[in-house]
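Changelog entry: the GHKL domain-containing protein record was regenerated in this release. Current contents:
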Amino acid sequence: MNIKKGKLIMINQVAIIILMLISMLVTLLMVVMYLNNIGLREEVDSLNDELVYKEKMIQDRESRILELRKINHDNRKHINLLNSIDSKYVKRKNKISLIAESLEDLCKNNNIDYRYIISNENFIDIAYSDLNSILVNIVENAINSISSFGEYKNKHNYIRLNSYEDNIIFCIEIINNGPKIEDTRGIFVEGFSSSGESGRGFGLTIVKELVEKYNGNIFVNSNEINTTFTIIFLK
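Regenerated C-alpha coordinates:
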Protein backbone atom coordinates (compact mmCIF):
# COMPACT_ATOMS: atom_id res chain seq x y z
CA MET A 1 0.00 0.00 0.00
CA ASN A 2 2.78 2.38 0.89
CA ILE A 3 4.46 1.67 -2.46
CA LYS A 4 1.27 2.42 -4.39
CA LYS A 5 0.73 5.55 -2.36
CA GLY A 6 4.28 6.67 -3.09
CA LYS A 7 3.78 6.11 -6.83
CA LEU A 8 0.59 8.18 -6.81
CA ILE A 9 2.41 11.03 -5.08
CA MET A 10 5.20 10.91 -7.68
CA ILE A 11 2.67 10.87 -10.52
CA ASN A 12 0.91 13.88 -9.03
CA GLN A 13 4.20 15.74 -8.66
CA VAL A 14 5.18 14.96 -12.27
CA ALA A 15 1.76 16.13 -13.44
CA ILE A 16 2.16 19.37 -11.49
CA ILE A 17 5.62 19.92 -13.02
CA ILE A 18 4.23 19.27 -16.52
CA LEU A 19 1.39 21.73 -15.92
CA MET A 20 3.89 24.33 -14.69
CA LEU A 21 6.03 23.79 -17.79
CA ILE A 22 2.98 24.14 -20.02
CA SER A 23 2.00 27.33 -18.18
CA MET A 24 5.52 28.72 -18.63
CA LEU A 25 5.46 27.88 -22.35
CA VAL A 26 2.09 29.59 -22.77
CA THR A 27 3.40 32.66 -20.93
CA LEU A 28 6.53 32.69 -23.10
CA LEU A 29 4.42 32.44 -26.27
CA MET A 30 2.27 35.35 -25.09
CA VAL A 31 5.38 37.45 -24.43
CA VAL A 32 6.75 36.64 -27.90
CA MET A 33 3.42 37.52 -29.51
CA TYR A 34 3.29 40.80 -27.55
CA LEU A 35 6.80 41.75 -28.66
CA ASN A 36 5.93 40.89 -32.26
CA ASN A 37 2.84 43.10 -32.03
CA ILE A 38 4.98 46.00 -30.75
CA GLY A 39 7.37 45.52 -33.67
CA LEU A 40 4.48 45.44 -36.13
CA ARG A 41 2.97 48.56 -34.61
CA GLU A 42 6.27 50.41 -34.90
CA GLU A 43 6.60 49.30 -38.51
CA VAL A 44 3.03 50.36 -39.27
CA ASP A 45 3.61 53.74 -37.58
CA SER A 46 6.79 54.20 -39.61
CA LEU A 47 4.95 53.37 -42.83
CA ASN A 48 2.15 55.78 -41.91
CA ASP A 49 4.67 58.57 -41.25
CA GLU A 50 6.34 57.89 -44.59
CA LEU A 51 2.95 57.91 -46.33
CA VAL A 52 2.00 61.25 -44.73
CA TYR A 53 5.36 62.73 -45.80
CA LYS A 54 4.91 61.54 -49.39
CA GLU A 55 1.35 62.86 -49.49
CA LYS A 56 2.62 66.27 -48.33
CA MET A 57 5.30 66.23 -51.04
CA ILE A 58 2.64 65.42 -53.64
CA GLN A 59 0.42 68.25 -52.36
CA ASP A 60 3.35 70.70 -52.47
CA ARG A 61 4.15 69.66 -56.03
CA GLU A 62 0.51 69.98 -57.05
CA SER A 63 0.41 73.48 -55.51
CA ARG A 64 3.52 74.46 -57.44
CA ILE A 65 2.08 73.07 -60.68
CA LEU A 66 -1.13 75.08 -60.13
CA GLU A 67 0.90 78.23 -59.47
CA LEU A 68 3.01 77.72 -62.59
CA ARG A 69 -0.14 77.09 -64.62
CA LYS A 70 -1.61 80.35 -63.33
CA ILE A 71 1.55 82.22 -64.28
CA ASN A 72 1.50 80.65 -67.73
CA HIS A 73 -2.17 81.52 -68.10
CA ASP A 74 -1.53 85.15 -67.13
CA ASN A 75 1.30 85.37 -69.64
CA ARG A 76 -0.42 83.50 -72.46
CA LYS A 77 -1.92 86.54 -74.14
CA HIS A 78 1.49 88.20 -74.25
CA ILE A 79 3.17 85.08 -75.64
CA ASN A 80 0.42 84.64 -78.23
CA LEU A 81 0.84 88.25 -79.27
CA LEU A 82 4.55 87.77 -79.85
CA ASN A 83 4.16 84.46 -81.65
CA SER A 84 1.51 85.86 -84.00
CA ILE A 85 3.48 88.93 -85.09
CA ASP A 86 4.24 89.13 -88.80
CA SER A 87 7.90 88.33 -89.56
CA LYS A 88 8.35 91.59 -91.49
CA TYR A 89 7.11 93.53 -88.49
CA VAL A 90 9.57 91.67 -86.27
CA LYS A 91 12.40 92.74 -88.57
CA ARG A 92 11.32 96.37 -88.30
CA LYS A 93 10.88 96.41 -84.55
CA ASN A 94 12.99 94.89 -81.80
CA LYS A 95 11.36 92.12 -79.77
CA ILE A 96 11.87 94.01 -76.48
CA SER A 97 9.88 96.93 -77.94
CA LEU A 98 7.05 94.59 -78.82
CA ILE A 99 6.94 93.19 -75.29
CA ALA A 100 7.20 96.68 -73.80
CA GLU A 101 4.18 97.75 -75.86
CA SER A 102 2.20 94.69 -74.81
CA LEU A 103 2.63 95.64 -71.14
CA GLU A 104 0.83 98.97 -71.54
CA ASP A 105 -2.68 97.54 -71.11
CA LEU A 106 -1.60 95.42 -68.13
CA CYS A 107 -0.37 98.50 -66.27
CA LYS A 108 -3.25 100.69 -67.43
CA ASN A 109 -5.79 98.19 -66.08
CA ASN A 110 -4.10 98.47 -62.67
CA ASN A 111 -4.02 102.31 -62.69
CA ILE A 112 -0.24 102.43 -62.97
CA ASP A 113 1.62 105.03 -65.02
CA TYR A 114 3.78 102.97 -67.39
CA ARG A 115 6.42 104.30 -69.76
CA TYR A 116 9.34 102.76 -71.57
CA ILE A 117 12.45 103.87 -73.43
CA ILE A 118 14.16 101.37 -75.71
CA SER A 119 17.43 102.56 -77.24
CA ASN A 120 20.08 100.93 -79.43
CA GLU A 121 17.92 97.95 -80.34
CA ASN A 122 20.59 95.88 -82.02
CA PHE A 123 21.37 93.01 -79.67
CA ILE A 124 18.99 90.78 -77.74
CA ASP A 125 19.61 87.15 -78.66
CA ILE A 126 16.85 85.68 -76.48
CA ALA A 127 13.76 83.70 -77.48
CA TYR A 128 10.52 85.72 -77.57
CA SER A 129 8.77 83.56 -74.99
CA ASP A 130 11.70 83.64 -72.54
CA LEU A 131 12.21 87.41 -72.79
CA ASN A 132 8.46 87.88 -72.44
CA SER A 133 8.38 85.72 -69.29
CA ILE A 134 11.27 87.68 -67.78
CA LEU A 135 9.74 91.12 -68.32
CA VAL A 136 6.11 90.20 -67.63
CA ASN A 137 6.93 88.41 -64.37
CA ILE A 138 8.94 91.38 -63.08
CA VAL A 139 6.20 93.85 -64.05
CA GLU A 140 3.47 91.65 -62.55
CA ASN A 141 5.51 91.31 -59.36
CA ALA A 142 5.71 95.11 -59.16
CA ILE A 143 1.96 95.45 -59.76
CA ASN A 144 1.14 92.83 -57.10
CA SER A 145 3.50 94.47 -54.63
CA ILE A 146 1.96 97.91 -55.18
CA SER A 147 -1.62 96.57 -55.06
CA SER A 148 -1.02 94.60 -51.84
CA PHE A 149 -0.16 97.69 -49.78
CA GLY A 150 -3.09 100.05 -49.20
CA GLU A 151 -0.90 103.10 -48.58
CA TYR A 152 0.26 102.95 -52.20
CA LYS A 153 -3.19 102.82 -53.78
CA ASN A 154 -3.68 106.59 -53.54
CA LYS A 155 -0.17 107.45 -54.76
CA HIS A 156 0.95 108.19 -58.28
CA ASN A 157 2.32 104.71 -58.88
CA TYR A 158 4.57 104.15 -61.84
CA ILE A 159 6.63 101.53 -63.65
CA ARG A 160 9.45 102.38 -66.05
CA LEU A 161 11.12 99.99 -68.49
CA ASN A 162 14.40 101.09 -70.07
CA SER A 163 16.99 99.29 -72.16
CA TYR A 164 20.37 100.29 -73.53
CA GLU A 165 23.57 98.69 -74.76
CA ASP A 166 27.19 99.38 -75.53
CA ASN A 167 29.98 97.32 -77.06
CA ILE A 168 30.12 94.97 -74.06
CA ILE A 169 26.67 94.60 -72.47
CA PHE A 170 22.95 94.77 -73.13
CA CYS A 171 21.04 96.11 -70.11
CA ILE A 172 17.35 96.20 -69.16
CA GLU A 173 16.05 98.19 -66.18
CA ILE A 174 12.56 97.95 -64.68
CA ILE A 175 11.82 100.59 -62.04
CA ASN A 176 8.74 100.96 -59.82
CA ASN A 177 7.87 103.13 -56.82
CA GLY A 178 6.22 100.39 -54.79
CA PRO A 179 7.15 99.45 -51.21
CA LYS A 180 10.77 98.77 -50.33
CA ILE A 181 11.92 95.16 -50.67
CA GLU A 182 13.84 94.27 -47.52
CA ASP A 183 15.32 90.98 -48.74
CA THR A 184 16.54 91.64 -52.28
CA ARG A 185 18.24 88.23 -52.47
CA GLY A 186 15.46 86.16 -50.95
CA ILE A 187 12.90 87.32 -53.53
CA PHE A 188 14.40 84.89 -56.04
CA VAL A 189 13.93 81.92 -53.69
CA GLU A 190 11.05 79.67 -54.68
CA GLY A 191 7.92 80.44 -52.64
CA PHE A 192 9.05 83.91 -51.49
CA SER A 193 6.38 86.60 -51.84
CA SER A 194 7.10 90.29 -51.35
CA SER A 195 3.36 90.89 -50.93
CA GLY A 196 3.11 88.34 -48.10
CA GLU A 197 0.52 86.21 -49.90
CA SER A 198 0.72 82.43 -49.55
CA GLY A 199 0.71 80.33 -52.68
CA ARG A 200 2.68 82.95 -54.65
CA GLY A 201 6.35 83.58 -55.16
CA PHE A 202 7.36 81.55 -58.22
CA GLY A 203 7.53 84.30 -60.86
CA LEU A 204 10.87 85.80 -59.84
CA THR A 205 12.38 82.33 -59.44
CA ILE A 206 11.49 81.70 -63.08
CA VAL A 207 12.96 85.10 -64.03
CA LYS A 208 16.32 84.28 -62.44
CA GLU A 209 16.42 80.85 -64.09
CA LEU A 210 15.69 82.34 -67.53
CA VAL A 211 18.25 85.14 -67.14
CA GLU A 212 20.93 82.65 -66.13
CA LYS A 213 19.89 80.40 -69.02
CA TYR A 214 21.35 83.08 -71.32
CA ASN A 215 24.41 83.64 -69.07
CA GLY A 216 22.97 86.89 -67.77
CA ASN A 217 22.80 88.44 -64.30
CA ILE A 218 19.97 90.12 -62.44
CA PHE A 219 20.35 92.61 -59.59
CA VAL A 220 17.81 94.35 -57.36
CA ASN A 221 18.26 97.67 -55.61
CA SER A 222 15.41 98.80 -53.35
CA ASN A 223 14.95 101.80 -51.08
CA GLU A 224 12.15 103.99 -49.74
CA ILE A 225 11.85 105.82 -53.08
CA ASN A 226 11.85 103.05 -55.68
CA THR A 227 12.92 99.52 -56.60
CA THR A 228 15.08 98.78 -59.64
CA PHE A 229 15.55 95.41 -61.34
CA THR A 230 18.67 95.46 -63.53
CA ILE A 231 19.30 92.65 -66.02
CA ILE A 232 22.65 92.47 -67.81
CA PHE A 233 23.63 90.23 -70.71
CA LEU A 234 27.20 90.16 -71.98
CA LYS A 235 27.66 90.34 -75.73
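Residues 86-92, 195-201 have pLDDT under 50 and may be disordered.
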